[in-house]
């Protein structure tokens, strides 16, 4: 019985996963509270309700990407007959203000939605004191003790800083950049994660002198052929890369906003590289928010990386404590994954549904200047799993029709299907590098979920003229070694 507790469910973290779970739980008639508290960044940046995606993730980054894309299209527009001036300027402050206004309206909308659904919202930091009790502390230091039958840990993650002199004092992260009140100027991005490359892409697109410092490879975990194509395209479009290097110290050499920093780095051959930048953004990975919240007081097992270890059904080592989203070990750090996990968990707990979140064939897109959409396995993961002989890769470069009149390059965009020969050429990897990759990948991903084969793709009739139609006519295998340049 749950009568002795204040709540049926307390959700810790009001981000993508926590909000979805708390609203669904309340919908099903349960008594729910959600605690959400944003610890300011070392620079003092903070934000409202909604978590990473809305405030410092997906939403502002896609909007800044759009701002950069528009700049490119302004150039194209001249070829299409518009008298767009040769030189147009961009106002960082106006862009930030417009984007932050939109985010503000989303923050407000979430608060209203919680109130309407009768979810108690506590703008306070939660810590477990025992397996059924949390202590919350608000901005003013006011404490509250709350008990609950069940808990959901959905605390997400925060950017990690390198352990080098000057990092925390002088660098910013993705938690700061989207609300940066001044133009960043000449910028160094440290790390080759998708977050680093996406930020580098829009900064260069907006006209800033942009450099990415890469320790080893681009986009670890993603298809490496495509990762290199992304890098090559970015390099042709103004992004500089320093390969095989890590920063060793960062000093402030000029005050002001943005001021000036001296970055010392070391290459793999032990060489020292020194340069000056106005802004340094570190994007070297994220740490799950599981330390110092008393999970040990509740007996919850954590993995070595700090994430919550779960069984099937997102259940932690303590049966009445669950974890979803970025803090869950073995999951995928994506907003729609956290939302689905939260919703389905609520339905299993309070509506006796049995549907589990399916973490396989989750489509995703990297919003670099040329967007990269994928679903399923990278070519190298497919080869690892099935063996090289059993994998057939069909591929082609292509040129979007829109690029022709704009005189954009012919062979930068690329499509690839990774198929398993012994399984009737089932498609296990879908990859597209080109404009609107996210929109295209979303549609095709249902084909992968339903087990589509190469023959199904061939049998599909294209929509002309689109870029997605390339997937209905792929007829060159990688094994053949034939040229895949776009034909006229
Ligand atoms: P979060 O959304 O991080 O929410 C956790 C919340 O809990 C936060 O508000 C936090 O402040 C709060 N909290 C933490 N500890 C406590 C505590 N003890 N008490 C109270 N509150 C607490 N995903 C995509 O799908 N597409 C994208 O394009 C995309 N782009 C991204 C770009 C960037 C720059 C970043 C950083 C991430 C991006 N992501 C993207 C990932 C996506 O944002 C996350 O996967 C998603 O937000 C995870 O949701 P969550 O509910 O697990 O946690
Ligand atoms: P990732 O994907 O782990 O990326 C971290 C990146 O930062 C990666 O390029 C690392 O290089 C680099 N890195 C890590 N430590 C350092 C230091 N100390 N110095 C320089 N560069 C460093 O992290 P994210 O959190 O951005 O992404 C999380 C998830 O999102 C990930 O699982 C993906 O599936 C999507 P490396 O390759 O290790 O040499």
From TrEMBL:
It catalyses: [thioredoxin]-dithiol + NADP(+) = [thioredoxin]-disulfide + NADPH + H(+). Residues 362-473 form the Pyridine nucleotide-disulphide oxidoreductase dimerisation domain. Its EC number is 1.8.1.9. Keywords: Disulfide bond, FAD, Flavoprotein, NADP, Oxidoreductase, Redox-active center, Selenocysteine. Its cofactor is FAD. The keyword Oxidoreductase applies. One of its GO terms (cellular component) is cytosol. It is an enzyme of class 1 (oxidoreductase). The keyword NADP applies. Coiled coil: none annotated. One of its GO terms (molecular function) is glutathione-disulfide reductase (NADPH) activity. It comes from the Eukaryota. Residues 7-342 form the FAD/NAD(P)-binding domain. GO terms for biological process: cell redox homeostasis; cellular response to oxidative stress; glutathione metabolic process. Belongs to the class-I pyridine nucleotide-disulfide oxidoreductase family. Thioredoxin system is a major player in glutathione metabolism, due to the demonstrated absence of a glutathione reductase. Functionally interacts with the Sod/Cat reactive oxidation species (ROS) defense system and thereby has a role in preadult development and life span. Lack of a glutathione reductase suggests antioxidant defense in Drosophila, and probably in related insects, differs fundamentally from that in other organisms. This is thioredoxin-disulfide reductase (NADPH). It comes from Petrolisthes cinctipes (Flat porcelain crab).
